[in-house]
Amino acid sequence: MRVLLVEDDELIGCGVEAGLRQAGFTVDWARDGQQAALALDTTQYALVVLDLGLPLVSGLELLKRWREAGRHVPVLVLTARGTVVERVGGLAAGADDYLGKPFDLTELIARCHALLRRAQGRSIDLIRYQNLTVNPAAQTVELDAIRVSLTSREWAILLQLLTNLGIPQSRSRLEETLYGWQEEIESNAIEVHISNLRKKLGAGLIRTVRNIGYVMEKE
């Protein structure tokens, strides 16, 4: 899943970006409010991790604009502004969760997973589909209770399809899920990853929708 990280502090941003990538997310890092606004206007994100004290446009102003425009992407506010009044203000502006600095990276990742569960209408980490058991937080997949090893790209595609059951995902949408700003899109990569997933998890798991993309059907 693709996450927008909005943070102007280089040290904190590097740590959060590395932690999110290790947790299996594709990360775009915006270092000011204008860059963040452009990113959300042009790219579909599963989650935003947003600092409030940003140059050019404040995080609070960004959040207000996004909510007024009807954008419902989950937002985790990450900031040194830790007073009750500031936290209440951030939540009132549309934040879904609030984590003050300094913070524990493990807690940040856990809160991200919790926000995604809530957005997807799940109360627990496990996703069960046919004979698959998938744990997004632990990045594990079991087929008939036997652990299956997936690459990071295969994992990202599987999770995108699982969280959009019955909705065909185009090649370009899957590429958006896999590749951040600084990553080069590999030729025919989506087709190769889909083929590998079918070999590992079952030929009938993912259906090709002609001239559209790929889909996992609702049960």
Automatic annotation (TrEMBL):
It is found in: Cytoplasm. This is Response regulator. Residues 124-218 form the OmpR/PhoB-type domain. Keywords: Cytoplasm, DNA-binding, Phosphoprotein, Transcription, Transcription regulation, Two-component regulatory system. The keyword Hydrolase does not apply. The keyword Transcription regulation applies. Residues 2-116 form the Response regulatory domain. Residues 124-218 bind DNA. PANTHER family: REGULATOR OF RPOS, TRANSCRIPTIONAL REGULATORY PROTEIN QSEB. InterPro entries: CheY-like_superfamily (IPR011006), OmpR/PhoB-type_DNA-bd (IPR001867), Sig_transdc_resp-reg_receiver (IPR001789), WalR-like (IPR039420), WH-like_DNA-bd_sf (IPR036388).
